[in-house]
# Entry
Amino acid sequence: MHSVHGMNVDCGFFMQGIKMKKTVCLLLLLMAVVVLTVLSQSERAAAFPSQLLSAEHPTDTIKKEEKLIANVIQHGAQPATETISAIHDFTKFGFRNLFNDFQYNPSLPYNQQVHPQAELYMSSYLQKHEKELINLKKKSGLYFDLIDNIFRQYGLPTELKYLAVIESSLQTGATSVVGAAGPWQFMPQTAKNMGLRVSPELDERRDFYKSTHAAARYLLMLYRTYHDWLLVIAAYNGGNGHVDRAIQRSHSNNFWQLQHQLPEESRNHVKKFIATHYIMENKNGAFINAEPKVNAPTLTPEELKNTIVIEVTGRFLSSVIIRQLQMDAAAFNHMNPDFDERLEKEGRYPMRLENNQSVLFISKKYEILNLCIQQLLSADKSTEVKKH
# Structure
């Protein structure tokens, strides 16, 4: 009996040890979940401007607006006035990765407020489609007025109307090869989810007014997920799955950092949106010239195909650009005849560079400009010394 009792004691300790281990494991697992949740909230909060967040609870404001958006989507009706205001204060920061001050300012030159990578990003699209977009701009007034009015009812930035331009050229009869239809190119199930009727007898995807209300709700739903309009545009084109995977692979929710993890079609969709916004909104002259008349006639079709035009303003010098880009002087002058003379006289020049040189110029633009100014100042000082 004693030995048996002793075995019972040992077994008891053994069983208690197992229970303690299980308890410790559960506690560790719970702590890990808490830590991951806190980190997730911190990363999420870091993506938003400080004005948007509560000092004591960084995600409280975000959660409140997300809840408002969820209610709008669920009820499928126009939000109340106070809800519109709250949603607008949330969604207006969605272009923070495109414009310096979160939104486009028509009183400023375009290239002084747009993200530097956007200049080069949309230039190739503009070279092919600028005339088409300008012609569409002349005929789009009534459509844009209607979309603006509806989007304001949902607290959305009105710039999002240009998504309908790249989706369908504002055509209600537009139909894609995969079955998307109407100005907003809704697939049948998505349209039904957003409250539209789709049947052989009636397809409200082609009703401009009703489909625009549905598009507003759908855009809000995507924004509730990504909090960034460039990512929303990519998801609108290719679906949430592609954007989610791009975020995971790049460990970033910044479009410029994750863009190459997206499918080319979705990446190009964002490019088209930026280019369309540029054509439709820019009233202060271009910084990208799709068809320069100064030097294009002297270039071969192959040279035109493999180069990009960037309109420069300011006191740039060809000698400094050539040196900083490590270019051949003859090649630069061939593509950009009379560069220094015309820039000094006219204040701007449609400079043509090879694709890789364009990327380097954009990244070093202000450094190059600073070197040019220094060289000009040195030349002025030398002239003054010689006069004396």
User: Anything to note?
Assistant: The mean pLDDT is 78.
